[in-house]
Amino acid sequence: MKKLISLIMTISLFVVLLVPANAASKADIESQIQYHINMKNKIHEAAELLRTAGYTDDSVAIQALKNDWTYENNRHIELQKELDEINASTPTSQTFYWDGPILTRGKGVNYGPTGKETYYNLNMSGVVSIMRNRGYDSTNYPYWVRNDGCKMLGPYIIVAANLSHFPRGTIVATSRGYGIVCDTGHLGWSHLDLATTWQ
Q1: Residue scoring higher pLDDT (197 or 98)
Q2: Ramachandran quadrant class, 149 (left: phi over 0; alpha: psi -120 to 50; beta: rest)
Q3: In this prediction, what percent of the chain has a pLDDT beyond 70?
Q4: What is the dihedral angle through the alpha carbons of 36, 40, 41, 42, rounded to the nearest 10 degrees?
Q5: Band of residue 69 on the pLDDT scale cut at 50, 70, 90
Q6: Rounded to the nearest 5 degrees, what angle is found at the Cα of 102, between the Cα atoms of 96 and 104?
Q7: pLDDT at 129
Q8: In this structure, are residues 108 and 196 in contact, taking their beta carbons and an 8 Å threshold?
Q9: What distance in Å separates the CA atoms of residue 146 and residue 110, rounded to the nearest whole number?
Q10: CA-closest candidate to residue 183, choices 153, 162, 154, 199
Q11: What is the phi/psi pair of residue 70, to 5°?
Q12: ∠ at Cα 144 (143, 149), nearest 5°?
């Protein structure tokens, strides 16, 4: 119990004291986005530990974590909008840049900017539900299918990955653009499995 309380206090201190300074460049914003994603994951893990210990969602401890998570999520969304504005105003960054091989339906296996890439085609309702419960709302992160067959959550391709390396919510570079880790499976350390409609 003392360890759980200590974990909550540590997370709260991170939220208050360790939020990076205002972004001054695209790289700064991308770094801050990843920071807030990591914080959301830590808060979610702490809440799960409390639930395992018998705390209910209306308990003071979990409500405090929810407030912290909401702060991190709002900041994440604000920064993403800033990044989108920069990308829209910078001709060289309007589209994702990768000059290597691209994953295709016929190819099946590719080696992209992060590592090995494959694709899968399963019903995404459960995966999307998990992300909704983590705060990825349908307004900012709608589920849709891109014209090339990639299944999307907001501006990102839905990706399965090794969660020990890439926790849910991590933004990763793929040969077809940026993806967001939403799912997992028996995957290697840097193996990304892209959700598509391909058969």
Answers
A1: 197
A2: left
A3: 82
A4: 100
A5: confident
A6: 125
A7: 96
A8: no
A9: 20
A10: 162
A11: -60, -40
A12: 135
DSSP per position, 57-90? TTSHHHHHHHHHHHHHHHHHHHHHHHHHHHHHH-
Q: Report how far residue 199's alpha carbon sits from residue 196's, in angstroms, rounded to the nearest whole number.
A: 9
Q: Given the structure tokens 């018998």, which residue do they identify? A: 54
Residues 33, 18: Cα–Cα separation, whole Å: 14
Residues 72, 36 contacting (CB under 8 angstroms)? yes
**Count of CB atoms situated within 10 Å of the CB of 88:** 10
Q: What distances in angstroms separate CA 127 from CA 37, 148, 158, one per listed residue?
A: 17, 20, 9
Read off the pLDDT of residues 75-119 as tens digits, 9 standing for 90 and up. Answer: 877 887 787 777 666 544 334 667 789 999 999 999 988 889 999
Query: Rounded to whole angstroms, how far apart are CA atoms 89 and 27?
Result: 15
Query: Are 10 and 65 contacting, i.e. CB atoms less than 8 angstroms apart?
Result: no
Q: Which of 32-41, 48-57, 148-157, 166-175 has the lowest mean pLDDT?
A: 32-41
Residue 97: per-residue pLDDT: 63
CA 71 distance to own-chain centroid: 16
Nearest CA among 60, 54, 196, 43 for reference residue 134:
43
